[in-house]
Automatic annotation (TrEMBL):
<dbReference type="Pfam" id="PF19054">
    <property type="entry name" value="DUF5753"/>
</dbReference>
<feature type="domain" description="DUF5753">
    <location>
        <begin position="2"/>
        <end position="113"/>
    </location>
</feature>
<protein>
    <recommendedName>
        <fullName>DUF5753 domain-containing protein</fullName>
    </recommendedName>
</protein>
<dbReference type="InterPro" id="IPR043917">
    <property type="entry name" value="DUF5753"/>
</dbReference>
Length: 120
């Protein structure tokens, strides 16, 4: 299994739960980003408009060639699972654009570590 996350920089600064909670969450992000099968990229606020502005989404891919994958866009009123090949392709393209706009995993890890230090 592999996890690849593109995280908006604003999430690093939006204080939810107080300083202690934010500190613990950021420390956990750093620990997860250091795992070999996890990649975390931070999309800087200065990147401007980007494909993720329409909302968060998760792409689930499976090892079976007969199962092309599922997209789960997050929204307020319930669950939605997109399974049409064109829907999956559209979200894969959007994710590739987000990956290209975001800092690389190494620079993102440094930014996360700086955010943890800023709360210490």
């Amino acid at each position: 299994m592999r996890l690849w996350v593109v995280l908006d920089e604003a999430a690093l600064h939006r204080n939810v739960g107080g300083a202690a909670v934010m500190h613990a969450q950021l420390q956990h992000l750093v620990a997860m980003a250091e795992l070999p099968r996890v990649a975390v990229q931070v999309l800087r606020t200065s990147s401007g408009a980007h494909p993720g502005m329409l909302g968060s989404f998760t792409i689930l891919k499976f090892p079976e060639s007969t199962d092309p994958g599922v997209v789960y866009p997050e929204h307020r009123t319930g669950s939605l699972y997109l399974e049409e090949p064109w829907e999956l392709k559209e979200h894969e393209i959007a994710f590739q654009h987000l990956q290209g706009l975001a800092l690389g995993p190494s620079d993102s890890l440094s930014l996360l570590a700086d955010a943890v230090e800023g709360l210490s």
